[in-house]
From TrEMBL, chain A:
UniProt xrefs under Pfam families: BPD_transp_1 (PF00528)
Gene source species: Sphingopyxis witflariensis
Keywords: Cell membrane, Membrane, Transmembrane, Transmembrane helix, Transport
Domain ABC transmembrane type-1 as annotated: residue spans: 70-291
GO CC entries: plasma membrane
Protein's name according to its UniProt entry: Spermidine/putrescine ABC transporter permease
TrEMBL record, chain B:
Keywords from the UniProt entry: ATP-binding, Cell inner membrane, Cell membrane, Membrane, Nucleotide-binding, Translocase, Transport
CDD domains in alphabetical order: ABC_PotA_N (cd03300)
The gene coding this protein: potA
Reactions this protein catalyses: ATP + H2O + polyamine-[polyamine-binding protein]Side 1 = ADP + phosphate + polyamineSide 2 + [polyamine-binding protein]Side 1
Every ABC transporter domain range: 9-239
SMART domains: AAA
Record-level GO cellular component terms: ATP-binding cassette (ABC) transporter complex
MF GO annotations: ABC-type putrescine transporter activity; ATP binding; ATP hydrolysis activity
Subunit structure: The complex is composed of two ATP-binding proteins (PotA), two transmembrane proteins (PotB and PotC) and a solute-binding protein (PotD).
This enzyme's EC code(s): 7.6.2.11
Protein name, per record: Spermidine/putrescine import ATP-binding protein PotA
Amino acid sequence: MAEQDWKASKRTFAAVSIPTLFWVIVFFLIPMAIVWLYSFGENRGLTDIAISGTLDNYKRATEWLYLTIFAKSFAVAALVTLICLIIGFPVAMAITFASEKWRPWLLLGIMLPFWTNLLIRTYALMMLLGTQGYANKGLGALWEGTSWLKTLVGLQPLPTWEPVQLLFNNFAVVFGLVYVHLPFMVLPLYAALDRLDRSLIEASLDLGAGHFRTIMRIVVPLAAPGIIAGVMITLIPALGAYLTPDLMGGTDSQMIANVIERQFKKANDWPFGAALSFLLIYAMFILIALQSMRKKVPEVG
Amino acid sequence: MTDTARPIIQIQNVSKRFGKVTAVDDVSLDILAGEFFVLLGPSGCGKTTLLRMIAGFELPSEGKILIDGQDMVGIPPNKRPVNMVFQSYAVFPHMSVADNVAYGLKIAGVKGGEAKDRVAEALELVKLGGFETRMPDQMSGGQRQRVALARSLVMRPKVLLLDEPLSALDAKLRAQMQFELSELQEKVGITFVTVTHDQDEALSMACRIAVINKGDVAQLATPSDLYEYPANRFVADFVGSVNIFEGKLTLDDPDKAAVDCPGLGKVYLNHGVTGPHGADVWIALRPEKIYLHVPGEGKAVKAAAQDAPDGYNFARGKIKGMSYLGDITLFEIELESGARIRVSRPNLSRHDQEDFTWDDKVSMHWRADSPVVLLG
């Protein structure tokens, strides 16, 4: 009905869409187009950029050094997505099957981090993981305790505790990204699992399947749209992650977004930064295109 | 039916509470091997909870359930010798019909040729031969239900549980499926336990019916006993249509009884009631058991109605409502007391409905063994 009305009164539809359309064009499409044009330009002096139609930026961007950074960014993002999926699926299942009383609170718990600024959350995580942080203090206490127990039974004590380096390495980047992106994975998974007809699960149990087989044969295939949505919604931002590797990573854990940032700032090479940016955008386009080509699971009403 | 006396399911003092709500309240009943058993009751009466406790999806708060003599405590649904057809059918939407039916067999370790034969046999049984490669979204609701049936029957369970199996089908299909389910049950010889709120469905399919009210068994009887000899007002009212009048038992001999009803007058019975003299009782009278006289016909029939021991059951009234249903016409008649009574009359000829109109003064009579005296 509503759809029909919109089709009938095209003018109202146009009037309502103009502000949004204006916003998208002026603040998104035009700046993107400018950046796209820059990627075919070259630096003339400090601030001038001549758009000469050169492909040199792309040639440089596909050099081995940058391709490895692209590959590494993909690997990190994929690992983060996989960990989020492995952690997020049971969490989403737990929320789905929690009692009516608990479910809103559990969902709130998942969404709570969104209410805090990413930068603050990242610093908080860094305090936790630092050499003087709680993680190390906890491990240290365990170490001391073990050492004390050993002396108690007459064994040699352990050597003195050396704090573990948990920050400024690849581990910290993956840990931080998982921490930031987990809610993005859990929410679409929850949405998909919540829609699942419970009697399908019961039917599987009724026919003799155990819980694990029911999850693998019934729940996962039917939650596939949610799983794919969760993977995309985690993978794409993780691929372009900038803040986490910048703050928590070491010298060897920079991702493609950090390289791009450097081109626009320190290196002052906007055309090259633009080319790298667009290669990243094309990669994301390919991911989205792959997702939309997937065979749809038919729904039974 | 073989070995009818052997109980396949024994429900012993089972209660189920959800928080403060008691869904099933101290129910004990036996379901016999090979019978078509129906749990009938209004929505929210606890009948589905009872079925789900047999399947193992809910655990009794108290009491125990035995299937084929074995206590089901601690036995999960996937280890119970019963299978269920769900109200929504729960056909797996991402699997073909054959894969749906083979799902349980694969888990049970039935492989290759035998699995294939059993799937084909089950599909043939529910008249879905040739549908093996269809996907559920290419099928109608009725066909999906047959898939669900085949998927359960292929497991050769000791008991097949059906949760409101016909509620999602349209009227015509429902009538056909009632017939087919009874036929199927006779053919496979498996005990069927069906939950329904539809009394027609229950009466037409069941060997025995347990009427459930507020978590308790109101009556357990064969369909005809349930209809003709209801044990209480709830059953009389829930199963079929009925006129109920309050009264006092004024005469109670071994071979006759009388109930004085302010609404209906004195009602005579040709059998004893064994209730305390002067007790408050209720008279239940089915609309089709009342003979309505065409205006002016009354006098001639008076003599024929004299089968009651002490006079006959006779009443007068005025037609206040009529609904013509084709096969029968339903009348709502205001009695001289002001109370109303419903009477149904078969349209034996093509002109029967022309004999009556609103506000006609009519008389009616019923046999002395037609009313049922209810003590509760």
